[in-house]
Write a structure and sequence with these properties.
Elements: E1 2-6, E2 9-12, E3 15-18, E4 20-24, E5 27-32, E6 42-45, E7 50-53, E8 55-60, E9 65-66, E10 69-70, H1 75-84, E11 87-95, H2 102-113, E12 120-126, H3 132-143, E13 148-152, H4 163-176, E14 179-183, H5 187-199, H6 206-210, H7 214-231, E15 235-237, H8 243-254, E16 259-263, H9 265-269, H10 272-275, H11 295-306, E17 311-312, H12 345-354, H13 360-374, E18 392-402, E19 421-431, E20 434-438, E21 441-442
Helix pairs in contact: 3-4, 4-7, 7-8
Length: 461
């Protein structure tokens, strides 16, 4: 069917202008001067509202196994919550276990996701076992539209990769055009600090932050950048949280190296003080890298303005406070690492617009357009333009709302942003031309989302 969105203000990364948007089937058919006489099966009035491309959350973990449990959101609940928050595409991580193949891992994640997602989705691949077979399988993954590969300098014994293994994977990425994504923390040193803290009887949640100091994120980020320089591989630093790591990324980008980084809303709005909340309350905020002292937040906002931070994703990996987070009572190292956030990314970033940290166009750029370009989905996604998928969010910039676990749609029993009062709210969401949310009512369904085979990185310098 056709839909005409009238009287809205179209906001793209490249500019803002008044236009009516005609949707025909799954695609945007035209942008026309307001008031031009067009007919459609349905008309939506967007007076006083933004018309923006649907958000792309390039870092989620639905149904992810971790520490004897798994993240609380399924692909159905997680993608439904994403849609409530104005996100119309997620890219989730398929997690290779030691001793298994990349291709069998991809099959396993397809079994979890296919037919269960309310919005479109793609996969990155986590490589935890670097060998001749897995390096060869990278080529098969790329042919199936999965061309970004995450590695870990943290979590020895689980996901950790040595510098030599990272080097080999980066060489394959350089050969194939793939992008290496890096969790950059010095896991070997961190494990020593964790063991020392526990030996001294320090088991409270704040120790999670104190034993993962920002200097060790900065060191690992610098080391990853040098390995990427030696191999010529593109490098994407995930969930960057510390000024030291941002400094390393900025220096590399200033020399023209293909180094990119994302940060997450939790690092822009939460801090080490949250980890230090009384009792076991701080466990709600345990994620890796950890929340940093508040002074890092200003540096991250600056990085978003200068494009040294290119994207804001969520690293959505929710664990319920009851039963799951409480696995680590008395021993912070056993608290499942991860926080919920997929539903609130667009709103939290809009607060940056409200407060003058970023422009409205930069909001769209870091939340939709650059993720589409970075991960091979542009111009199909990430832009309001003829020929693009009709993934469209009508956003009310003046509406007020309070974030709370009582009203969110994620399958987790707490909100990391409980009580946050924000300005701006999603009004209507279209996913490939289908209205999935309007008037506070969800009209989508599991299975309506499609798997996206992605092209190579379109954002290289």
């Amino acid at each position: 069917m056709s839909i005409l969105i009238r009287n809205g203000l179209v906001v793209n990364a490249t500019g803002t202008h008044a236009a009516d948007v005609l949707v025909d089937g799954e695609k945007i058919a035209a942008l026309v001067t307001p008031g031009f006489d067009l007919q459609a099966d349905e008309t939506i009035d967007a007076q006083g509202k933004y018309v923006i491309p649907g958000g792309i959350d390039a870092h989620t973990h639905m149904e992810m196994p971790f520490g004897g449990t798994q993240s609380a959101d399924t692909f159905e609940t997680g993608t439904t919550a994403a849609a409530w928050g104005g996100t119309t595409t997620i890219i989730d991580f398929a997690v290779q276990a030691k001793g298994t193949s990349l291709l069998s891992t991809m099959d396993k994640w397809h079994e979890k996701a296919d037919g269960n997602c309310a919005i479109d989705y793609g996969f990155h691949m986590i490589i935890s076992d670097v060998n001749d077979t897995s390096l060869k399988e990278m080529e098969s993954c790329i042919s199936q539209g999965v061309n970004s590969f995450k590695m870990f300098m943290a979590y020895p014994g689980v996901f950790y990769a040595t510098d030599g293994e990272i080097l080999r994977a980066m060489q394959k990425a350089r050969e194939t055009g793939a992008t290496i994504m890096m969790h950059a923390e010095n896991g070997i040193a961190i494990d020593q600090l964790v063991a020392q803290a526990l030996a001294e009887g320090k088991g409270e949640p704040v120790q999670h932050g104190l034993t993962r100091p920002p200097e060790l994120e900065g060191e690992a980020t610098s080391r990853a950048i040098q390995l990427a320089k030696v191999t010529g591989s593109p490098l994407y630093i995930v969930h960057l949280s510390a000024a030291q790591a941002l400094d390393a990324v900025t220096r590399a980008r200033d020399t023209g190296q293909n180094v990119f980084a994302e940060t997450c809303p939790q690092y822009l709005y939460l801090s080490l003080e949250d980890l230090a909340k009384p009792g076991f309350e701080g466990a709600k905020y345990v994620a890796s890298p950890p929340l940093r002292p508040m002074e890092h937040q200003g540096e991250l906002w600056r990085g978003l303005r200068t494009n040294d931070l290119s994207i804001v994703s969520t690293d959505h990996c929710p664990f319920c406070f009851k039963d799951q987070k409480q696995l680590g009572v008395g021993d912070f190292s056993k608290i499942p690492n991860g926080m919920p956030g997929v539903e609130h990314r667009m709103d939290l970033l809009h607060q940056g617009v409200v407060k003058g940290e970023i422009t409205v166009n930069r909001w769209v750029e870091i939340a939709a357009t650059t993720p589409a370009r970075m991960f091979g989905l542009y111009p199909r996604k990430g832009v309001i333009a003829p020929g693009a998928d009709a993934d469209i969010v009508i956003y009310d910039p003046a509406a007020r709302q309070t974030i709370s676990a009582e009203t969110h749609h994620m399958a987790v029993d707490y909100s990391a942003y409980e009580g946050f009062e924000v300005t701006g709210k999603v009004d209507t969401v279209l996913s490939r031309g289908r209205v999935v949310l309007t008037g506070g009512t969800f009209r989508g369904a599991a299975g309506q989302g499609k798997f996206l085979e992605r092209e190579l990185n379109q954002y290289l310098i």
